[in-house]
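So, could you explain the following?
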Amino acid sequence: MRRKDREVKDFARILEIIENCNTIRLAFNDGDVPYIVPLSFGYEADGEQLYFYIHGALKGKKADLIEQNGKCFFEMDRELGLELMPEVPDVTMRYESLMGKADIEILPPEERRAALDIMMQKNEATRDFEWNYAAAPRTLVARLTVTEFTGKVNPIGGNAD
């Protein structure tokens, strides 16, 4: 990372960044052109091991690419705002972000409901929502086991250099 002053190494701060993000973007190797897809997600941490959960249709390009390779790159971010600094003069985007590599696997039907429950806990509006549990067996649910990650922030009030 070129801007070491923006790197986040504190795991508690990494979890804050994750909690503040609403979308995870997964990138897959699709021959000559990468394939990227934005998704809602849930997560859990076991010590400092991160796991993300995503869902979608049982059939389609995403499912095919997960099964073909079993690896992906992920990214999530939260825009904090554009800052204009006429005294410098300069402009910078304030943000929080996390990206990294993961092994990804489609979960068997018996593990899907628990993973979907984890996803429902991510957002306050869905924490107590009684979702259609009968949908779990006909839903693709995948777990990302994070193998490498980097957190980066350019916080409000931070240095624009």
The mean pLDDT is 90. Residues 109-121 form the longest helix (13 residues).
